[in-house]
Amino acid sequence: MQILRLLTLCCLLILIVGNRSFLNMALSISSWPTLLTTGGISANGGTGSSDPKGLGNQSTSTFGHPPSLTSRGNISNDKVIMLGFDDAWKSQITYAKPILDKYGFKATFFVVCNYVNSGEIRRMNWQDIAALQKDGMDIESHSMTHPSSLDTLDQNQLEYQIGGSKQCLATHGYNSTIFAYPYNLGSNDSAVVNTVAKYYNIGRSGTAPLMFLNCIGFKKHPQTDCRTYGPNGELNYANRYVARSLSFDIVEIKDSFNSTKMFSDFVKIVNSQSTYNRGGKLNAIPLIIFHNITFTTNRPYNTNAGLFDQLMKYLYENHIKVLTYKQLGYNTEANTFYLNGIS
User: Fold this and answer.
1) Got the DSSP string for 199-256?
2) Which residue has better confidence, 17 or 309?
3) Nearest Cα to 330, choosing from 217, 242, 235, 245?
4) Residue-wise pLDDT tens digits, 304-314
5) Of 224, 176, 170, residue with least CA distance to 204
6) Euclidean distance between CA atoms 262 and 230, whole angstroms
């Protein structure tokens, strides 16, 4: 009888081991539509019953010993995202960077020069900026003082805000080639755009969830390529000096800071590129911007650190390629954008 039991057990073990790969594949396929991330939020925006708000207590443990992460495998060439941070908030290096490090992501930090070393404890200092660059982060320009509207300034003031910002960063050892318009204003003004063109390779403004690399696809703004000016002599909506990005804070405000809705909308934005990117050819990608990354909620321009971790985990687990804005190039012959460092 004992021998019979041992034989039965051996057969069961052989059966289980032999079918392990099939079991893993079945679990992987069946669980993808409701992929759970930190805090119980799923890929389709649902939340686990133990955490109705989708944030739970995860944000307080994010910066301890990070959990072991499974291998990402092959990163899909069909889904890409660029991550950026505006205004040199201290929280970006205190809370956002450890999360980026956790998932192996690099991002771009758009710096307002006079905010750095301003004495405001909520802003970064030059040592912080140096630490970011040392760890592979990209440092770019966001003006000298973050004026409310560049298109109300005279030429001397534009030179100070735009050219002065490039020189300020260069003085501290940073070669900025991208300019981000404060408040996303001024990119429809020729004097502003022409000044940006004097000092930078590329400009970044809002407010579109996807940037079409050939600038064809903005339904309300038809154009044939990314030339700065159209045949009528007017500025094109998207061009070399107006790459279109989206501040995720706009999504958060629209969703009334409901974590489930915010996560769901982030997933929709990231995956909306699938319609345009097929067979390894990239035509449209989301350029996303964040500001403060904190433990607060329900405050404009403050993304909860726990939610930010969930968003980054979604990118990691779904093999989305994360780039810096520095990897956005421009082809002067074809008048289109392209991506550096990606086949």
Assistant:
1) H-SEEEE---S-EETTS---TTS--SS--SB-TTSSBPSSBTTBEE-EEHHHHHHHTT
2) 309
3) 242
4) 999 999 999 99
5) 176
6) 36
Asked if residues 307 and 233 have their Cβ atoms less than 8 Å apart, the reply is no
In this structure, what token pair is assigned to residue 191? 């004097």
The domains found in the chain, sorted by start residue, are: 78-339 (3.20.20.370)
Using DSSP bridges, classify how beta strands 211-212 and 284-285 pair: parallel, antiparallel or unpaired: antiparallel
Q: What is the rounded distance in angstroms from the CA atom of residue 158 to the CA atom of residue 163?
A: 8
Residues of the chain above pLDDT 90, percent: 75
Give the pLDDT of residue 78: 81
What distance in Å separates the CA atoms of residue 213 and residue 244, rounded to the nearest whole number?
10
CA 313 to chain centre: 13
Position 343 scores a pLDDT of: 64
- Whether the full predicted model's pTM is greater than 0.70, yes or no, is yes
CA–CA dist 267, 246 (Å, integer): 14
Please determine, for residue 5, whether its predicted confidence score (pLDDT) is greater than 90. no
Which residue type is seen at 15? L
